[in-house]
Amino acid sequence: MQNSRLLHGNRIWLTALSRDDAPIIARWDSDSEFTRLLDSSPAYPRNEDHVVRWIENEQKSRDNFLFGIRLVETDELIGWVELDGVQWTHQTSYIGIGIGNRTFWGQGYGTEAMTLALEFAFHELNLHRVHLSVFSYNQRAIALYEKLGFQREGVYREHLQRDGQRYDMLLYGILRREWEALRK
Q1: Three-state DSSP state, 150
Q2: Within a domain: residue 78?
Q3: Spatial distance between the Cα atoms of 139 and 123, rounded to a whole number of angstroms
Q4: 14: part of which helix (H) or strand (E)?
Q5: What angle do CA 151, 89, 9 make, to 5 degrees?
Q6: Is residue 7 in a domain?
Q7: 10 Å Cβ neighbour count for 66?
Q8: Which of 122, 163, 165, 173 has CB 3.0 to 4.6 Å from 131, enough for a Cys bridge?
Q9: Domain tally for the chain?
Q10: What is the rounded CA–CA span in Å between residue 155 and residue 148?
């Protein structure tokens, strides 16, 4: 059975990223709030060359699947989603998402992008499990993941230090059978 809607949602679609996208992503990476929601590394701006290398390295990998999140109507790039470090033997992968354009925060675009990425993970890549980590202060992301059916599986207590405070890193996962049960 062929799914002509693979990677296409109602408002967004998932595409390959190119070097033409590097200036946009580099601009997002200059936003310390955005980078602090995504990564435990120090928040620092990446230049366009760094972003191009990241995109090219991800595209060379057979274990990573990086997508741009674009609006269907205008093709504007608003973020990215990635299945990272696929372990083919175990049928597992890490997933991450970033909506870089603040105009589109809190409007359901992340939900739609994650739904498309999970459909791709479970039905195109035939994965069994997808997992992620999220910082305890990122309540918007936690709500998204729980709405999609991710189960909290653990916590790295006081894993992260930001602005003199310690924060937990929460671990979430979803199994293919759980995802399929929720989709019915």
Answers
A1: coil
A2: yes
A3: 29
A4: strand 12-15
A5: 55
A6: no
A7: 19
A8: 173
A9: 1
A10: 19
Residue 1 lies in a domain: no
Pairwise CA distance, residues 31 & 7, whole Å = 28
Report CA torsion sign: 157, 160, 166, 172: negative
Asked if 75 contacts 64 with a C-beta cutoff of 8 angstroms, the reply is no
pLDDT digits (tens, 9 = 90+) for 49-65: 999 999 999 999 999 99
- With cut-offs at 50, 70 and 90, classify the pLDDT of residue 4: low
Whether the CB-CB separation of 144 and 106 falls below 8 Å is answered with: no
Domain that residue 77 falls in: 12-183
How is 6-69 classified by DSSP, letter by letter?
Answer: TTB-SSEEEE---GGGHHHHHHHTT-HHHHHHH-SS------HHHHHHHHHHHHH-SS-EEEEE
Domain-located, residue 6? no
Cα 145 to the chain's mean position, in Å? 11
Closest to 47 (Cα-Cα) out of 30, 60, 31, 68? 30
